[in-house]
């Protein structure tokens, strides 16, 4: 697949990027270089290769998934500029 100047202009418009007309041929060349690199990556045989989380092998820390209420209401409300009856109090905005 090859990107021409018209397609590069369309992509720039869709991305909401202002590109001057004289810069469009260079942008089209950059898009073509990117697509060429993607084509090279598609040629790599990855059959049987496990996906990686990181470049260094490591196990992610896990914890038991237990639903709780957090028991931190007092700590959270301590940061509020105004709290009443266990809730945040905010000024009325709509009349």
From TrEMBL:
Keywords recorded for this protein, A-Z: ATP-binding, Ligase, Nucleotide-binding, Protein biosynthesis
Assembly and interaction partners: Heterotrimer of A, B and C subunits.
Functional description taken from the UniProt entry: Allows the formation of correctly charged Asn-tRNA(Asn) or Gln-tRNA(Gln) through the transamidation of misacylated Asp-tRNA(Asn) or Glu-tRNA(Gln) in organisms which lack either or both of asparaginyl-tRNA or glutaminyl-tRNA synthetases. The reaction takes place in the presence of glutamine and ATP through an activated phospho-Asp-tRNA(Asn) or phospho-Glu-tRNA(Gln).
NCBIfam families: gatC
Keyword Mitochondrion set for record: no
Protein name: Aspartyl/glutamyl-tRNA(Asn/Gln) amidotransferase subunit C
Catalytic activity: L-glutamyl-tRNA(Gln) + L-glutamine + ATP + H2O = L-glutaminyl-tRNA(Gln) + L-glutamate + ADP + phosphate + H(+); L-aspartyl-tRNA(Asn) + L-glutamine + ATP + H2O = L-asparaginyl-tRNA(Asn) + L-glutamate + ADP + phosphate + 2 H(+)
Entry annotated with the keyword RNA-binding: no
Molecular function in Gene Ontology: ATP binding; glutaminyl-tRNA synthase (glutamine-hydrolyzing) activity
GO biological process, one term: regulation of translational fidelity
Organism: Gymnodinialimonas ceratoperidinii
Family: Belongs to the GatC family.
One Pfam family cited in the UniProt record for this chain: GatC
E.C. number: 6.3.5.-
Signal peptide: none
């Amino acid at each position: 697949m090859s990107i021409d100047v018209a397609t590069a202009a369309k992509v720039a418009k869709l991305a909401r990027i202002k590109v001057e007309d004289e810069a469009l041929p260079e942008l089209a060349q950059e898009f073509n270089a990117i697509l060429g690199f993607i084509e090279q990556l598609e040629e790599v045989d990855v059959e049987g290769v496990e996906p990686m989380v990181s470049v260094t092998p490591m196990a992610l820390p896990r914890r038991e998934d237990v639903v709780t209420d957090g028991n931190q209401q007092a700590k959270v409300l301590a940061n509020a500029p105004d709290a009443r009856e266990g809730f945040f109090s905010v000024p009325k905005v709509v009349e």
